[in-house]
Design goal:
Helix content: 10-25%
Shape: globular
Number of helices: 3
Strand content: 15-25%
Radius of gyration: 16 Å
Structural class: alpha+beta
Strand order of the largest sheet: 1-2-8
Length: about 180
């Protein structure tokens, strides 16, 4: 699914759902008060910028991916830049032989940008960067490098690694329904 870098995010208009990655059972859902900008929604046949990302950027980006799980979907999206589809016997969450990151995903990440703006990327943007040489726009690179995943978070959402969760948002458990 292709969206141009820095275009307005419109993949889902149902708001944001951040899952607590420490247990996968708690989540917080809310309507964002910030603008979401697309980053890294690549697709074969559409142009994208390639380049060599710094090791620090790659390391920090992979840390964000490992610490966040946003808008998890029931379907699986697989990288179509890879030359062949994953065989059914290959677990989707493990890298292909020769790759460093999994080439499929079910969710997204969020990185705070300038005031009032957030970058929205698929969770397997790390695969695009480290395995395909995708070079995101400089604004995103700078935002990832500046993002403190372990900053001072509101105590009510300790496992949600994102600073702009609204005060009125409630941390829920999947069994709360």
């Amino acid at each position: 699914m292709f969206y141009a870098d820095l275009s307005p995010y419109d993949y889902s208009d149902e708001g944001e759902t951040f899952t607590d990655v420490t247990d996968g059972m708690r989540y917080v859902a809310f309507q964002p008060a910030y603008e979401r900008l697309n980053i890294g929604w690549l697709e074969a046949g559409f142009p994208w910028t390639s380049g060599q990302a710094s090791q620090d950027f790659g390391r920090r980006l992979l840390a964000v991916i490992d610490a966040q799980h946003v808008n998890a979907m029931l379907g699986l999206h697989e990288c179509d830049l890879c030359p062949t589809p994953l065989p059914d016997t290959h677990p989707w969450y493990t890298p292909r032989p020769g790759d460093r990151r999994a080439s499929a995903g079910t969710g997204e990440i969020r990185v705070p940008g300038s005031p009032g703006a957030v970058f929205a990327a698929p969770s397997f943007i790390g695969h695009y960067v480290v395995d395909h040489g995708y070079m995101p726009p400089q604004q995103f690179v700078e935002a990832v490098l500046a993002f403190d995943l372990y900053g001072a978070w509101p105590p009510k959402c300790p496992g949600i690694r994102f600073p702009w969760v609204p005060e009125e948002a409630v941390l829920r458990h999947v069994d709360d329904e």
